[in-house]
Amino acid sequence: MATSSGARRNAADDTAQPLRYAYHYCNVRPGLPPVTGPQMGDERASAINTLRDKWLNGTELTYYFYDQPTDGQNVLLADGSTRFVPWAGPDAQKQAVRKAFKVWADLGLGLRFKEVPAREQALIRIGFMAGDGSWSYVGRVVREIPAGERTMNIGWDVTQDLDTAIHEIGHTLGFNHEHQNPFSGIVWDEEKVYAALAAPPNRWPREKTHFNILRKLDPSTVEGTSWDPDSVMHYPFDAGLILEPAKYRMEPLQPPGGLSARDIAQVRKVYPAQPPVNEFEELALSESRRLTIAAGQQIDLRLKPSRTRNYQIATFGEADTLVALYEDVGGELKFLAGDDDSGEDRNAQLRLRLQRTRNYVLRVRMYFASFAGETAVMWW
């Protein structure tokens, strides 16, 4: 792997001058907004917001590469003219991104990744638009991006820079930039950072630099209170941009490349390996099932309707939950509906028509419960 963490050295700059401030950086797109409000205590806010961008475990993340000559957009040039820039990329670039998905998949996660032939089937839609940088939306917010728009872009050659593709997929899994961790202790030489990122190859305005580097994440969105400078989600930085920790005044901060031990532990905690779908426990009709799962955990239950009719599914009790229902089609789960009541004074509820002889899977994630063991789920 080349340089790490959503960045790469610019070859032209490397030959023209010493290796200083010559990284291309990822320009991340936002995820879901943190839940806030006067009714939110610190514990509740943290329990919700550390998982708010994350997918329900067991989700199949489908991805698609734009590949048609008409895929792209018109770009306004400095002289006032426009030029069409394609989104499609060469096969070698696509193959590198496939390898990056495999790096995550080989960890044995509960998530699955599947390339699909049509953009309408894809949650993740990947372009290779030159001049647009490398970026991805964070986590579940990709469901809100209109069909036909990219949710990820690879803006430079990643055949020799696999970490950039791994980094962008990390965003799609719901992980933010580690150098923006509010517990990192990083103190920036801010004007030097602005100047460095305004120069080639990034040419970022101040607001983009602030959003991607200087802005600290909301503490409620960060699990734990420690910092991982080795994370694949951490940018590299040349010496002098960081004032504290003091050692980075004189030496660069350079993650070693690839997933760090903390990256692996964290993603396995959020997305642990799952049993086959047919081994999920059945929830009987009109049975009130007490939710004994802890904050951050998930339960998967099978529903088998004996009649075709309209049904309701709901959680009960003072809890923040995310629920989703899927149809089991030969072991493949097709998403039907979901509801997220996190931060609201209500319970998650679904109303939909289920078919006799078909099988369904209900997933319930517990964000936070006011009182352990006093929440339940039921369908009727």
From TrEMBL:
It comes from the Bacteria. InterPro entries: MetalloPept_cat_dom_sf, Peptidase_M12A, Peptidase_Metallo. Residues 51-231 form the Peptidase metallopeptidase domain. Pfam families: Astacin (PF01400). Coiled coil: none annotated. PANTHER family: DISCOIDIN, CUB, EGF, LAMININ , AND ZINC METALLOPROTEASE DOMAIN CONTAINING (PTHR10127), METALLOENDOPEPTIDASE (PTHR10127:SF850). This is Peptidase metallopeptidase domain-containing protein. It comes from Roseateles asaccharophilus.
